[in-house]
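Researcher: I've been going back and forth with a colleague about how Divalent metal cation transporter might be arranged in three dimensions. Neither of us has a model we trust, so I'd like an independent prediction. The organism is Halostreptopolyspora alba, in case that matters for your notes. Sequence below.
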Amino acid sequence: MSERDDTRARPSLGAAAGRGTLLGAMFLMATSAVGPGFITQTTEFTARLGAVFAFAILVSIAVDIAVQLNIWRVVGVSGERAQDLANRVVPGAGYLLAVLIVVGGLVFNIGNIGGTALGLDALAGLDVRIGGTVSAAIAIGIFLVRRAGVAIDRIIVVLGAAMIALTCYVAVVSRPPVGEAMRQAVLPEALGSDVFFATVTIIGGTVGGYITYAGAHRLIDSGTKGPENVGTITRASVTGVLLTGVMRVLLFLAVLGVVTGGTAVLDTANPPAAAFQSAAGEVGMRLFGVIMWTAGISSVIGASYTSISFVTSFSERLQRHRGWLVAGFITVSAVVYALVQQTPTTLLIFAGALNGLILPVGLGVMLWVAAFRGRDLLGGYRYPRWLLALGVLAWLLTVVISYRALSEIPALWQ
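Model: Here is an independent structure prediction for Divalent metal cation transporter. You can compare it with whatever you and your colleague have in mind.
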C-alpha cells in the first residue's frame, strides 16, 4: 500500500478529542525539547556566533526532521513502544534503552525543576528552592488528576502557545537584523569548528534522549498507530520539529537583536534574563520569568511522562500505577534538586551529554527494524527507501554527537 493510500485510508480524526491528542503529541515533543537548557543554549550560541548561528539552526532542523520521521514512523506503524521493539530485535536491548532513557530523563528533570525555580525567581523573586518545590507539586497534580492524558494534551498546548507568543513579542521589540540572519542561514560567511559544535549540540538537545520519543509514545498510547495512520504520524512528527524550530528561531532573533545593539549578554550570570531585560526592560525580565517557568514545567511533564513510558510496558502492574510512578519520578527529581550542590546549568549540560549517547542507540534500532524487520514488526509495511537513506545519514551524524558527548562528560565534574 502506498503512503498516499495509507493517508486516505486512515480513520477520521476530526473529532475534538482526536485533534486534541494530535496537538498534544506534537506540543509534547516540542515543549520537551524547549526547556531551560534549550533557552540558555540558544542564547549563548547566538551571543557567541551572531547571525551565522542561523545556519546551524537551519541544518539542525533538517537533521531533526530526518530523525523524527524515522523514529515516529517505526514506532507509530508498529504500534509498540521503542523499548519493546528493541527487545524484539535484540533480547535485553530494550531494558538497556529504558535504563538510559530513565537515567538521562531523571538528570534532565532535576535541571528542568531548576529552570522553573529560576523562572519564578525572575517573575516574583521567589526563593529557588521554594519555587522548585511549588513547580514540582503542580506537575504532580497534573498527572494525578482524572483523565490525566487529556489534561496533559490541553495544558501542553497552552504552555507551548504561550512560550511562542511571548518570545515573538520580545523578538519584535529587540529589532533584530532579519535580512542578515536569512542571508547567513543559506550563505554563511564563516563555518569554523564553533559552528559545527553549535550544530551538533542543538541537534542533541532537540531530538536526543527521551525527547524524540515523547510525542511518538503519546500517539500510540492514544490509539493513533498502524500503517493506516502513517500520514497522520508523518505530519505530527514534522510539525513537532517545526514548532521547536519556530521557538528556536524566535529566541535566536530576540537575542540577536540585543547583541547587535551592543549588549554583552554573556557578561552576566544569567544570559537569557539579561537579553530579555535589555530588549524590553523590566517587562522583559518578567516575560523571561514566565517563559523560563513555562519551558521548565512543560519539560518536567514531557521528561516524566516519556521516561515512565519506557518502563510501564514491562509489567501490567506498573501500567496500572503509572500516575503514581510519574509522581514519584518528579518527587525524586525535586528532592535531588533541593539537595544537590551542582548548579542547574551543569546538570543540564550533563544530561545533554547523556542524551547524545542515547540518540544513536535508539535510532539505530529503529532503522534496523525499518530495514530488516518490516515483515513481522511493521505488519508487512513497505518502508520508503528514501526515508531509510535519510535516517542512515542522520544516524552517522548522531555518532559524531555521541563522540562529542563522551568527550564532554569528564570535564563537567572537574
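Researcher: What would you highlight for our discussion?
Model: I'd start with this: The chain has one domain: 3-250+290-412. After that, consider the following. Residues 3-250+290-412 form a domain with the Amino acid/polyamine transporter I fold (CATH 1.20.1740).
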